[in-house]
Structure formats: C-alpha cells, structure tokens
Amino acid sequence: MPNFRDKKHSLLQREKLHEIMEVEVVRTRITLACTECKQRNYNTTKDKKAHPDRMETKKYCRFCRTHTLHKETK
Hints:
Layout: H1 7-23, E1 27-34, E2 40-47, E3 56-61, E4 66-73
Antiparallel strand pairs: 1-2, 1-4, 3-4
C-alpha cells in the first residue's frame, strides 16, 4: 500500500488530478419549452462549446398530449 505522505506520490496524485480537471467538460443547465403551448416541460444540460446555438428537439408534451417541437429557453 503506498504511503500518501510520500512527496513523490502526492505530487503524482496532484498531477493526475490536474489532468482530469482539464479534461472535464463544463455543461450548462437549459430548459426546453413546448412551441405549441409554451409550457416549460424539460430540464437538461448541454455543452456550450459543442452546441453554441439554441437547442431544438421533438419531445412529448403532457399538456398537448402529443410529440411537439421543444426549444431552449432562457
């Protein structure tokens, strides 16, 4: 079992942690609203770097009781 007080080992642990933090992608929370009834039905996340424009997807609206287009709102 490695000794965590060893300076070399703790330095390697910090370097690995730093590498992991750089790779981590920041995702932002968004809300999707139905285009028919304007109800805000879904909360999700998206990657701003990969998808800078507003998201649109067809999802089920429980108020309209059908699949409708949902757009990202503020």
